């Protein structure tokens, strides 16, 4: 029985080598040729990560609220980023219009880019701001305060065809709701652009 042990040991050692077999390298992927025209470009994919990473490049048409008139599509006019929540992450302020009336929707920058979280209700929606039929011309965020510039109408103007007021709204997030801090109205004395 003793003489079979060395043979068995030799048989076991024969299968072992001092070098480990290296795995086969992964096949190399050849680069696809670049598209010839813009018509051949692939469709953009939904952004990953958080909203602050996507910022202005997210597909905002799919995230803003629909128009009250279901026959209309909301039109995204502008996207501005700035820290509204005070967490050090840029939030997204999306200006959109329906029937030449603008609103600003604010989305939390730390939310997932595929499903951004809207903060409170859209700014400029509902009375008294909506009665002025604002057409947003600019938005900025300074020290957490949102300043919205718009062309609009006097509240007692029934014609709604010729905005003659330059409006400046200021909002601040207090808790989970926006509070309007002030509204400045500078009558222009002439028709201003609205759409």
From TrEMBL:
Signal peptide: 1-21
Record organism: Actinoplanes philippinensis
Region (Disordered): 18-55
Domain of life: Bacteria
Alphabetic keyword roster: Signal
Bias kind Low complexity: ranges: 27-36
Keyword Signal attached: yes
Name of protein: Repeat domain-containing protein
Keyword Signal: yes
């Amino acid at each position: 029985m003793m003489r079979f042990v060395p043979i068995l040991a030799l048989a076991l050692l024969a299968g072992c080598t001092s070098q480990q077999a290296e795995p086969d390298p992964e096949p190399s992927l050849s680069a696809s040729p670049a598209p010839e025209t813009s018509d051949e470009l692939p469709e953009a994919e939904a952004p990953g990560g958080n909203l602050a990473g996507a910022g202005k490049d997210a597909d905002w048409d799919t995230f803003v609220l629909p128009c009250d008139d279901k026959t209309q599509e909301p039109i995204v006019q502008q996207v501005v980023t700035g820290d509204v929540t005070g967490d050090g992450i840029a939030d997204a302020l999306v200006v959109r219009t329906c029937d030449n009336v603008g609103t600003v929707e604010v989305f939390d920058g730390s939310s997932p880019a595929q499903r951004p979280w809207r903060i409170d209700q859209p700014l400029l929606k509902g009375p008294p701001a909506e009665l002025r039929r604002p057409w947003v011309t600019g938005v900025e965020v300074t020290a957490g305060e949102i300043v919205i510039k718009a062309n609009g109408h006097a509240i007692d103007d029934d014609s709604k065809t010729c905005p003659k007021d330059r409006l400046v709204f200021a909002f601040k997030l207090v808790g989970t709701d926006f509070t309007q801090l002030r509204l400045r109205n500078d009558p222009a004395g002439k028709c201003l652009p609205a759409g």
